[in-house]
Amino acid sequence: MPKSKSSENNRPKKATVGMQLLHNPILNKGTAFTDAEREDLKLRGLLPPRVCSQDQQMMRVLENLRRKPTDLEKYIFLVGLQNRNETLFYRTLVDNIEELMPIIYTPTVGKACQKYGHIFRRPRGLYLISEDRGRIDAVLQNWPHDDVSVVVVTDGERILGLGDLGANGMGIPVGKLALYTACAGVDPSHCLPITIDVGTNNEALLEDPLYIGLPQRRIDGSAYVELMDEFMESIRKRYPEALIQFEDFSGTHAFNLLNRYRSSYRMFNDDIQGTAAVTLAGLRSALRISGGALSDQRVLFMGAGAAGIGIGSLLACALEKGGVPKAEALRASWFFDSKGLVVAGRERVRDMQKPFAHKNPEIRDFAEAVRVLKPTAIVGVSGRPSLFTEKVVREMAKLNVRPIIFPLSNPTSQAECTAEEAYGWSEGRAIFASGSPFDPVSHSGKLFQPGQGNNAYIFPGVGLGVVASGAGKVTDEMFLVAAAALSDMVGEAEFAKGMLYPPLGSIREVSKVIAVAVAEEAFSAGVSSADRPDDLADYVERMIYSPDYGPLA
Fold first, then answer.
1. Average pLDDT, the chain
2. Is the pLDDT of residue 506 over 50?
3. Domain ranges in the chain?
């Protein structure tokens, strides 16, 4: 049956009273405990006398938060609240998602991961280390919750566009799971963040006395794969119904592990598949502005790693579903990396790039590649800033009435161009979406609200749909229906402002719609052994956690 919509399902045992209750972040209500609860739960005298409503508590939180001088200080403050009172943390986050998502996730989470050892207060999540090989089963038993629906795991090797941050990467699974709860209503007590610490090759971290991870270089090869195999099987034994989401692995590991596990485990890689779906949704939305069919597009990617190849692969899948032959579908995507255009016969083309290594002369300059290939869209997934130069954007604007410009690299400091540059260099004609948020841009008397192609539009809804359906695996078709559902939720009012995605304030509704579409796909495709509920939308709705205080026994 669906889980409860509030924290009422987490009632304490009678022994959880007094100061022990106040130190339990799942159950703590702070000054919102009623007089009757204070009497019954031995809290009298342990709290200030005035009983506050949750709205009053949130008012206090926001007042203090907004006084903080930097986004990193705001992040630290919110993590502290999460550690004290999860229900209030999520109520504040849900009700102020547009303001707070950039704090608890990109771009601020990148700064937090870089400083993680220096701002460390209290552990969240589970750390597995390379030396745990052979005993991961036992370590997983230390996690206090027996009902886990979603696991988010990283090895910290490629955190956003910031590179190898080792165990400091724990900020990513913690942040992603906060979004699972805030955006899709997955109960926080059913979420498990995991960092697999196999070392780091980041010299600065190895020399940092406050680094929290193993001060050793990364293991790789067969030892790495065997550790991951044990991890996957141990998760399945401990939490057989859990979905496992991979985050911020290196490009090579990301693809290899996805291909290794996707057929036999309930898992997906957000950097590959989530990014692909949110980008495909953005392209679909862009075409509703510019006109034209998806099959007529040619996309040139700056960056040929896991994210870019994932987008190209899902775009090819969508085109094939629409009747385009496979070879032609693959030729819709072209890739440019640090060595130039990825073409057939070029030296050092990686296996994952080979389907997109088309016959063409080598080109070393990106602006020249734009001029020669005449793309309708350029997508930045390089993790390097300012690569969409004025020359590049002006060339795109010369080729297209409405050029599609997607600098998706995170955090904001790594974006291939800014919103202001894209609109300015294209004379206000660019159709723009970025990975991290940009402020509105005024150009020629018109105010543009840049679209943010944030994976948070996709993965929470996909995860909720997989959990709701009991799907045994996560398929490409699930991401196709998620992308279509997301694009369909963008209205004319958003298009008029230059937005390609729904307002963040509606993200809970967006996630619910995506979850229903994904669950429907799972049942239709026969990848779930469960019976389809008569009213699937109602079934999903009743699973959604609401961060409201319930009565405590």
1. 95
2. yes
3. 7-102, 103-265, 273-455, 457-528
- Rounded Cα distance, 78 and 473, in Å: 34
Token pair of 485 as six digits: 């559902």
Domain 7-102 has CATH 1.20.1370.30: yes
Q: Which of 5, 176, 473, 512 does the annotation list as catalytic?
A: 176
Question: Is 482 in contact with 458 (CB distance < 8 Å)?
Answer: yes
User: Strand 333-337 vs strand 404-407: parallel, antiparallel, or unpaired?
Assistant: unpaired
State the pLDDT confidence band at 326, using cuts at 50, 70 and 90. very high
Fold classification of 273-455 is Rossmann fold (3.40.50)
Question: Which candidate in 74, 75, 90, 105 is catalytic?
Answer: 105
Q: Catalytic: 116?
A: no
Fold for domain 103-265? Rossmann fold (3.40.50)
- The 3-state DSSP class for residue 129 equals strand
In single-letter form, the type of residue at position 229 comes to D
457 as an active site residue: the answer is no
Structural contact between residues 113 and 165, judged by C-beta atoms closer than 8 angstroms:
yes
Those residues with Cβ within 8 angstroms of residue 60's Cβ, 6 or more apart along the chain or in another chain: 52
How far is the C-alpha of 500 from the C-alpha of 502, rounded, in Å?
7
Strands of the sheet containing 333-337, edge to edge, are 340-341, 333-337, 299-302, 377-380, 404-407, 431-434, 451-452
